[in-house]
Every structure is written in C-alpha cells, then in structure tokens.
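Translate structure to sequence.
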C-alpha cells in the first residue's frame, strides 16, 4: 500500500512506514511523506483538506501596474521608480476534499482560488499574532508600553530599513530601548504609500505627560509622521492595517532597470 493511500486510513501507520523506507532506490522523500501525514492528521480533525491544483499568471496583472516617483534621490544620489502592483501576479487553485460518510473517504467538492496577495497577507497576520501573543499579556499587566507610529509618503523618504535603525537608536537614547517591533507597509486606493509600526518598550511612566519629542520623527523622515499609545487591545489596533493591504510595491533602478521587491512587513526576532 502506498504511503499516500495509507495516510487516508491511518496517519500514524503511514508516518511509521515513511520512517522505515530508506533503503537504496526505494528511498522516498521522507519530508514530503511526513508533511502529508501531518496534513491528513489535521484533515481527520476538520473533516477536509486541500490539494494544490496549479498556479497561473493573472491576465489582468499588467493592467494593474501603477508608477510612483521615488523622490528620495536627493538623499541617496539615485532616482528609482516605485511600481505598485494593484492586481496579484499569480492565481492558485486549491482543490478541497471533504470527508464523505457514505463512501468513507475524502471526495473533491470545490475549487478554492487564492493568489500571492492573500498568501502574503496570511504571513503578515501570522507575524502579527506572534507579536500580539507575547505583548498583549505584558501590556495588560502594565509591564510594557506599546507605541503606534505612522510614516506617510514613503516614496518621498529614505528606505524604511534605514529609518528603522534611526528609530532604534533614538529609543535607546530615551533609556527605553525597543524590545520588539512589527511593521507593515500600506498603499491606499489613492496610491498613498505609507508605513505603520508598533514598538514595545519597558513600561514608561508617562501618565499625564506628553510623548517625548525625541520620539517625533518628522524631520528625520522628511514627511508627516504620527505617534500614539496603543490602547486596550493591540491586535484589534493593528489587524485592520495588516489585513486590508491589497497592493504591493516594487522598485526599479533606472540605471539598469533591475526590479527589486519592497518588503510589505517586518518583525523582530521574538523570543
């Protein structure tokens, strides 16, 4: 009996068999077998699973490309262009298999279509969950302070990676270095390219006081920025910015026409 067939009937037996088939030409891809076993184990709990059904290029992809000028060339002696993808480039079909009690097996029921935007948003939500799962309890117990920052007109400013280094140094100067952070880029319908950032520090006693001017970054960013305290639920505060982003940015170097991705989110190494 093949491992895939055995997975449908007994995931545990299939996993044991996958571990034992390792000799000579009969060796199988143990990693693939193990992943399939894990998938079928989850399917036995949910009653369904998905099979990959192929990926195709979106025929409307080129029509959704928009151009933004990258005006920070005065700072970096280079003039690049930012291309905004408003339509996903790849569409992927997933075939759903539902468990049928009558035939006592999984049968195909529908085709679910996803795309590279949805996949990226899913990764962003997982990153946000990691941050919130650690810092929401610490925030409720008043052990940390959470700041929410917005950086507007990103196509007119320095690269955000460079800005993050500056932000980190300025928080250190206040005596409250950043413990962890999570950020996302957002491109609104009007092609307004901006960033949202949440940082966690040890608890600051700022009751009745204003946020230190050292943490106001308008001059260093070169455009309008905003900063506020996260109030109550950090995930509720941030999820709307992480989930609604349906555009992506790429940068074209005008010297060599090389296209590079612009990261849509980032997170520190949370321990």
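Result:
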């Amino acid at each position: 009996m093949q491992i895939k067939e055995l997975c449908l009937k007994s995931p545990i037996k299939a996993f044991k068999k996958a571990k034992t088939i390792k000799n000579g030409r009969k060796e199988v891809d143990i990693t693939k077998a193990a992943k399939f076993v894990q998938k079928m184990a989850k399917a036995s709990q949910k009653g369904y699973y998905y099979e990959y059904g192929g990926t195709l290029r979106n025929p409307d992809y080129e029509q959704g490309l928009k151009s933004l000028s990258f005006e920070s060339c005065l700072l970096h002696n280079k003039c690049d262009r930012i291309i905004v993808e408003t339509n996903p480039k790849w569409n992927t079909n997933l075939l759903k298999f539902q468990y049928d009690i009558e035939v006592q097996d999984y049968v195909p029921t529908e085709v679910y279509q996803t795309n590279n935007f949805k996949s990226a948003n899913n990764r962003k939500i997982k990153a946000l969950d990691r941050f919130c799962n650690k810092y929401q309890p610490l925030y409720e117990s008043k052990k940390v302070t959470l700041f929410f920052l917005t950086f507007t007109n990103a196509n007119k400013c320095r690269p955000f990676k460079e800005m993050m280094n500056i932000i980190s140094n300025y928080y250190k100067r206040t005596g409250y270095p950043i413990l962890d952070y999570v950020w996302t880029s957002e491109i609104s319908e009007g092609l307004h390219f901006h960033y949202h950032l949440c940082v966690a520090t040890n608890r600051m006693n700022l009751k009745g006081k204003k946020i230190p001017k050292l943490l106001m970054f308008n001059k260093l960013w070169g455009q309008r920025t905003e900063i506020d305290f996260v109030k109550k639920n950090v995930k509720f505060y941030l999820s709307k910015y992480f989930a609604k982003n349906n555009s992506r940015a790429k940068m074209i170097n005008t010297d060599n026409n090389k296209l590079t991705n612009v990261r849509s989110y980032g997170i520190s190494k949370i321990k």
